[in-house]
Design brief:
The protein is of the alpha/beta class. The protein folds into 2 domains: 158 residues, Rossmann fold; 70 residues, SIR2/SIRT2 'Small Domain', CATH 3.30.1600. The chain is 32% helix and 18% strand. It contains 9 helices and 9 strands.
Length: 262
């Protein structure tokens, strides 16, 4: 049975668990970025794009049918995300990384706001909206000739370029997924933050941590399928709860993240 706490009252047991942790792994979802004004995937179906279903714009088949339409929608999404700034939740996680011996941040978000906040150890499960890859070779392409083609073509093989995000029907990057499960299985405290706990395989990560004996802390304004399994469930948005959690941690009693505990 989880012990629930409001965002204005952090249980001393949560503080003690975090102070004692040697390895903290964190999973973040769309709720964390939503606090920065980043629309969720389906909320981005607005204006000119309201007539399209997400599945009509985010599959390999859709890209093959109408690559210009898909490229332009993602270019529009990049503009939206580019206006967003890291919020207090992002900043708190970047600070927490400095205070614990080992720390891994796993995110389902594709907006780079964690990196903008200063997080360095980030596993991107669903890719990165600001990266571009070759549709055929799946290799990252950083620059290409400006020919006016939409989408542009790969300078190496001539195939169309696409955003480096995971589309419906695609598997998650094997290396990122493996690293995420390794972190979940090795950590002694796992935090699930701003995620619905419905999208697999990411939703399996906190379960994997629990099965290996880790303490599980959920931070979310709403109840999720994970809530009843969490050791501690803190109700509230990450931008409120995480700064309060950090403030309650006596910094002098935490080991700085300068030593290797592998």
């Amino acid at each position: 049975m989880s012990q629930q706490a409001s965002s204005s009252l952090i249980s001393p047991k949560v503080i003690q668990a975090l102070r004692s942790a040697r390895y903290v792994a964190v999973l973040t979802g769309a709720g964390v970025s939503a606090e920065s004004g980043v629309p969720t995937f389906r909320e981005a179906q607005m204006g000119l794009w309201a007539k399209y279903n997400p599945e009509a714009l985010a599959t390999p088949q859709a890209f093959q049918r109408n690559p210009t339409l898909v490229w332009e929608w993602y270019a529009w999404r990049r503009q939206l995300v580019g206006q967003a700034k890291a919020n207090a939740g992002h900043l708190a996680l970047a600070e927490l990384e400095k205070l614990v011996p080992r720390f891994t941040l796993i995110t389902q978000n594709v907006d780079e706001l964690h990196q903008q906040a200063g997080s360095s150890s980030v596993i991107e499960l669903h890719g990165n909206l600001n990266r571009t890859i070759c549709f055929s070779e799946r290799k990252v392409v950083e620059s290409w000739p400006e020919t006016g083609d939409i989408p542009p073509r790969c300078p190496n093989c001539g195939s169309l370029l696409r955003p480096d995000v995971v589309w419906f029907g695609e598997t998650l990057p094997a290396e990122a997924l493996s690293a995420a499960f390794n972190a979940a299985e090795q950590c002694d405290l796992f935090m699930s933050i701003g995620t619905s706990a419905l999208v697999h395989p990411a939703a399996s990560l906190p379960v994997a941590a629990l099965e290996r004996g880790a303490i599980l802390v959920e931070i979310n304004p709403d109840t999720t399928p994970l809530t009843s399994h969490a050791t501690y469930a803190l109700r509230g948005p990450a931008g409120q709860v995480l700064p309060q959690l950090l403030e309650a941690l006596p910094e002098a009693n935490l080991s700085p993240n300068h030593q290797n505990y592998d």
